[in-house]
Amino acid sequence: MTDIFPLIIMNARPAAGKSEIIHFLNATPEAERRSRYHLGELTIFDDFPMLWAWFEEDDLLEWALGRPRLHTTPDGYFSQVDFWHVLIHRLSLEYDKWRRDPQEETTAVIEFSRGAEHGGYRAAFHHLSDAILSQAACCYVRVSYQESLRKNRTRFDPSRPDSILQHSLPDEKMERLYRDDDWDSLTADHPEYLNVRGHRVPYVVFENEDDVTTHPGPELADSLAACLGRLWALWRGRDQP
């Protein structure tokens, strides 16, 4: 029987710490990552590069070619709510292409943020593929909106707006897109498993209001080990009634 997660979904508000957690785990020695966190070599699937490419392409269409934008408005929003769901289907497609070859020693990590304004996590999970939902365990990194806003401001590097660890949103967009988060309402009646289209997806919540991820150290390592240990037990028991 495998001793690693085949697939982890990482969710959180922007700047909550999920990318920092992934960065920390990637830097952890392989043997420790496997024994302490139940993770193999990590392959990351993140919808931010896809989203960012749409904005870049639309800017090129408008500014370089004088053509209409395809996905986004000039003030920086998606022109259709369904494009948020397209991103989830894109993540599912990329995962399906990746898994065509055997991946026994690897853990896939699917990372995304969703606010209630564009359907929230309830809609996002509904659009994930059966291949993902049948294997997934989920870790939600919880911070308040105020903490998300603070860290979003702090991490911004204007010379690297496309960076996974340093991109940021203007306050107005944070307010509109991410102030309201439906995670608590989604999980209120399901303390250990999400039920999505007949799949039981185990989840845990990693509390990060005290920000142990910006400067990772023993506190992050210990908290993450405890959190993923609970998740491992839930994942192992997901098929039991």
Walk me through this protein's architecture.
The chain has helices at 18-27, 30-37, 48-64, 82-98, 120-127, 130-133, 145-155, 171-178, 183-187, 218-236; strands spanning 7-12, 41-46, 106-112, 136-142, 193-196, 199-207. With 241 residues, it is of the alpha/beta class. It has one domain: 3-Layer(aba) Sandwich (Rossmann fold), CATH 3.40.50. The chain has a 6-stranded mixed β-sheet, sandwiched between helices. A hairpin with a 2-residue loop joins β5 (193-196) and β6. The chain starts with 6 loop residues before the first strand and ends in a 5-residue tail after the last helix.
Identify low-pLDDT runs.
none
Shape label:
globular
Question: What is the fold-level CATH name, i.e. the topology?
Answer: Rossmann fold
Care to count the β-strands?
6
First and last CA, distance: 20 Å
Within the largest sheet, what's the order of strands? 2-3-1-4-6-5
Indicate the percent of residues in helices: 40-55%
Summarize the structure.
The protein is of the alpha/beta class. It is 44% helix and 16% strand.
